[in-house]
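Q: How would the structure tokens look for this protein?
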Amino acid sequence: MNNNRLLIIEDDTDLREGLSFSFSSDGYEVTEVATKAEGLREIKKNVYRMVLLDCNLPDGTGFELCREVRSFSNLPIVMLTARDTELDEIQALELGVNDYMSKPFSLGVLKARVKRILQEKTETARIVTGSLTIDQNTCKVWKHGEEIQLSKLEYRLLRYLIENKNHILSKEQILEKIWDCDGKYVDNNTVSVNISRLRTKIEEDASKPTRIKTVHGIGYIWKE
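A: Here is the predicted structure in token form.
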């Protein structure tokens, strides 16, 4: 898997295509979208290393999208905006963006900031929890040093559980974050089935799980 996947969410066609061409020329694998809804779908369905996010979108704001993304992911976000006010910058930083640039901006400076953020993230990209090692850049998982094969959905489920370790997640929360990004209906049994599959791959004994614990009548919890 390419570990330099970049998502550009920008409704200005010329700017979006210009950024896409320039970053692609530098070896990034770039996906472009023009709306908040498309951006959220991409972030939930695919694995990206960074998002370049416009502040003003046809169907909402970058602030709103950032707030939604931060509810389930620490994906690096650089906000690009024509609204050059101190209050906007403060709001963006408080919402958890990694950097903030006002238009017009220097492409060279943007690239340098993107590179810096990715380097910092690379240094903390590996999660080690018990016998498991997770590389967030390549989305690979090892158990006792041996790579285990997880589907994209299983990987997202594992990450979501670990990111919320020691906190109970209801089946409804898991459905919303992992399956409901397209508004498709899936029943609660979907969660149980996929939790069971994940347990067989990561637990020492899936019949006596020590990591993904069931909280009867509520949901599941990742025990650190």
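The first helix runs from residue 13 to 25.

Helices lie at 13-25, 36-45, 62-70, 86-95, 107-123, 152-163, 171-179, 189-202.

Upvote if useful.
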